[in-house]
Every structure is written in structure tokens, then in C-alpha cells.
Design brief:
single chain, mainly beta, Porin, 1 helix, 11 strands, elongated
Length: about 200
């Protein structure tokens, strides 16, 4: 009987602690670090080519909880390298930087496990190098994203996060020495995992 009472009391304490550890991010500021992969979705990623390989992507950003269930996020993701192919042969190495501003709607924000959906605006730029050693600039272009993910709170200030998003944008110019020589289409799928660190509601008081 004592064991049953002790077990029930311990379980109740752990369940209460689980909720208290998360307790939402209202009025709290967080820093995110993440890594994963970016998969170009257009065969003609660079005009006149026939495909681009998935590449390692990493980045991070900031998140702020406005109110129960709603947060704003500034996110920067860098595609380190993607091989661009033509007729099965590598012809370029591409790198992209995506700067995203978005909003999140967070479900069950007081729980340890917090699913979210979001969307926002994206600003994309990149670099391109040919196998012959020639360098090109991928000019800024603008677009948007939709994403969904999960935060799992280990403590009130630390959460593991996973995010998948679709990135779409207008075609951007490919330039060499200031002269336009082609187009690129940054439409991509991005999947990452990472960690978020949250400050208390009033860290400087």
C-alpha cells in the first residue's frame, strides 16, 4: 500500500514538473542552432542544367514568444555546398544563404512537446563556382516558406527542435563580373534538427 501511494505521488510530481518545465514561451527570447539538409526541388536549379544534389545545411536564429501560442522567428540557413549537374556530370558547386522572417503558431504551448506550424518571407542569395574555376554570383531574390516542426523541452530553458519547410521564391539572376549570364530557382525542401536556449521572461530585472 505504501509503495502504491509513493508511486502515485511520485508520478503526480513528475507530471506537474513536466508542465512547469515548459510553461510556454510567452514574453521569452530564445536562440536556435540547427543542422540538416537542403534538397533543391527544381531540375533546372541553374538554367541549362539538369539537376542539383542535396547538400548539408546549417544555421540558427532567434525566436520570441508574443503571447500564448504565437511566436516570431528570424532564421538564417546556409547551404554549404550542392553539386549542380548537367547530363549526369558535375558542372558547378552552389552555395545558398536563406534569411527568413516568420510567425509560428504553437499548439499545446504549456506542454513539454510543442508542435508548431509557421510561414513567412525569405530573402535568398548565393555563390556558384564552375568546375573550370569560374566564380558567379547568385543575386538576391525574394520568396516565402511554410514549415512545421516540434519543440521538446528538456528543461524550461532548453528545448530540442526539429523543423521541415518548403522554400519557394522568384527566379534570381546569375551574374559574372556584373553581367547576367543565367537564372537560378531556389525552390527547396529543408529539414533540420537543433536546440533552442530560452532566457527567462525578465532576464534583466
Amino acid at each position: 500500500m505504501r509503495r502504491a501511494i509513493f508511486f502515485s505521488a511520485t508520478l503526480a510530481i513528475l507530471m506537474a514538473a513536466g508542465t512547469a518545465l515548459a510553461a510556454g514561451i510567452d514574453g521569452r527570447f530564445g536562440i536556435t542552432g540547427k543542422a540538416g539538409a537542403l534538397v533543391p526541388l527544381q531540375d533546372s536549379f541553374i538554367s541549362s542544367t539538369s539537376g542539383a544534389d542535396p547538400g548539408f545545411a546549417a544555421g540558427g536564429g532567434f525566436i520570441f514568444g508574443f503571447c500564448k501560442g504565437l511566436a516570431a522567428e528570424l532564421d538564417v540557413t546556409r547551404l554549404m555546398k550542392s553539386n549542380v549537374n548537367s547530363s549526369g556530370n558535375k558542372v558547378f558547386e552552389a552555395a545558398l544563404t536563406d534569411v527568413a522572417l516568420g510567425l509560428q503558431y504553437r499548439f499545446a504551448p504549456d506542454n513539454r512537446l510543442v508542435p508548431f506550424v509557421g510561414g513567412g518571407a525569405d530573402f535568398i542569395k548565393g555563390q556558384l563556382k564552375s568546375t573550370a574555376g569560374l566564380d558567379y554570383d547568385l543575386d538576391w531574390t525574394v520568396g516565402g516558406h511554410v514549415n512545421l516542426g516540434l519543440d521538446y523541452f528538456v528543461t524550461r530553458g532548453i528545448a530540442f527542435t526539429t523543423d521541415i519547410r518548403g522554400l519557394f521564391a522568384s527566379d534570381g539572376d546569375v551574374n559574372r563580373s556584373g553581367t547576367k549570364v543565367g537564372k537560378y530557382d531556389p525552390m527547396s525542401f529543408i529539414g533540420t534538427v537543433g536546440i533552442r536556449l530560452f532566457l527567462p521572461e525578465h532576464p534583466f530585472e
